[in-house]
Amino acid sequence: MTKGTILIKNGTVVNDDRHFKSDVLVENGIIKEISKNIEPKDGIQVVDATDKLLVPGGIDTHTHFQLPFMGTVSVDDFDIGTQAAVAGGTTFIIDFVIPTRGQSLLEAYDQWKRWADEKVNCDYSLHVAITWWSEQVSKEMEILVKERGVNSFKCFMAYKNSFMVTDEEMYHIFKRCKELGAIAQVHAENGDMVFEGQKKMLDMGITGPEGHELSRPEALEAEATNRAIIIADRVSTPVYIVHVQSIGAADVICKHRKEGVRVYGEPIAAGLGVDGSHMWNHDWRHAAAFVMGPPIRPDPRTKEVLMDYLARGDLDCVGTDNCTFCAEQKALGKDDFTKIPNGVNGVEDRMSIVWENGVNKGKLTWCQFVRATSSEAARIFNVYPRKGRIDIGCDGDIVVWDLNQSKTISKDTHHHAVDFNIFEGIKVTGIATTTIVAGNIVWSNNKLSCVKGSGQFVPRPPFGPVFDGIEQRDIVRNELLRKVDRKPYDGPVIQLNK
Ligand SMILES: C[C@@H](CNC(N)=O)C(=O)O
Ligand SMILES: [Zn+2]
Ligand SMILES: [Zn+2]
Ligand SMILES: [Zn+2]
């Protein structure tokens, strides 16, 4: 798809720092002019945004399209997944390359890139998971940063015997991230305790989806979150906790931030929109649909409290962890919850869920909504202001947002490939009515007009804003690392028997 030219008139532009009435002209995919009363030249497509907002295209920091996982493959692939994304106002997704233990990172990266390049309907980028550690991994991380546009690596502290790494391995991976200027991301759950908890539940005959939460309560997420942050701080490198699902984990992040630790937290649409009580639903398929890791917490306060943290800036950018499985796939775990493929939807409804539970609940301003759904993610992953802002020279990824239009979310009308929607029946007011990607309309009047494979890979340079000030902090902290000049001990020493 060629980069488009389009004029959006009479809208209210909302960035994360201010909002103002203006026309916006996008030329060949780049924002060219922002001013009142831009006269349309002949033949230019014009969109009337009267009484509507213009927000920067949403950025979903966390997706797993067509992920091979737990014996099957997530059904939202890079085509359907990015169609669902743009239908909800998201125009840039960051997915995860997840090498199997022992697999070359570069080989896995090339595979994911092939999958995405042929199918994406909007721009994308790739985090890379580090599921094992060696000299080769260390070398390949450098190539990924210096030659493949990767500036973020994810460690899993859960999924024992598959993706999980040890504290020692995580320490070395974090050190490498610091050397390379890449942000260290963590799936924070105590994987050993999850493993023991799963065995305990099964031994007690608890095989249903409720066993998923019971086997890995929020204490295991909070403990691992604390451990990951402390290990990252021992290395003094920025750390990003993905899918923060509990008040306990959010509290830990907040505590360390107050002490000056460079830690970021990513809530997800699921944790901001629903609660985990659904895993106790008597309909097995319904209950299993909510199984993901870390679990969506059953405490009904969680989604409100996580939104409060987001509003205060103690949590940073909203992802989804979109990793969807249909009934017959979830049924792999019909007799044993540990075999239910973990994952839920979110990429289509993320922005409306944040608007409904944030802005409409009086917790987020329009500007904070843009921060939470777009600009903070662009800053953290070092693509701001190309992404995350409506300004001259920025990518022409713009969403016409109707703050007065409502819809009721349903699997019957969503654009996912999956046969369940965890937000089923939720009425949201505030939706994307037109989505523009690189100056082309890809969603309007409830219709998709994507061109499969038209999205571009967006490289993300290292040493982004998350590294600002780290060096100086190290200088100050290293002042304390001094040895004491003391007279050597010359008293008696016990003789150990051989
Ligand atoms: C494997 C991946 C998706 N599944 C999930 N979160 O339940 C993740 O843990 O982020
Ligand atoms: Zn995860
Ligand atoms: Zn339910
Ligand atoms: Zn994930």
TrEMBL record:
Its Gene Ontology molecular function terms?
dihydropyrimidinase activity; metal ion binding
Q: Catalysed reaction(s)?
A: 5,6-dihydrouracil + H2O = 3-(carbamoylamino)propanoate + H(+)
Instruction: Identify which cofactors the protein needs according to its UniProt entry.
Output: Zn(2+)
Annotated protein name in UniProt: dihydropyrimidinase
CDD domains from the UniProt entry? D-HYD
Q: If you read the UniProt record, what top EC class would you report for this enzyme, in one word?
A: hydrolase
UniProt subunit comment:
Homotetramer.
Quick one: a GO biological-process term for this protein? pyrimidine nucleobase catabolic process
The modified positions for N6-carboxylysine read 154
Q: Which Gene3D superfamilies match?
A: Metal-dependent hydrolases, Urease, subunit C, domain 1
Q: Which InterPro entries match?
A: Amidohydro-rel (IPR006680), Hydantoinase/dihydroPyrase (IPR011778), Metal-dep_hydrolase_composite (IPR011059), Metal_Hydrolase (IPR032466), Metallo-dep_Hydrolases_sf (IPR050378)
Question: What family does the Swiss-Prot or TrEMBL record give for this protein?
Answer: Belongs to the metallo-dependent hydrolases superfamily. Hydantoinase/dihydropyrimidinase family.
Which residue ranges does the record assign to the Amidohydrolase-related domain? 54-442
Top-level taxon of origin: Eukaryota
Give its E.C. classification number. 3.5.2.2
- Which UniProt keywords are given for this protein, alphabetically ordered? Hydrolase, Metal-binding, Zinc
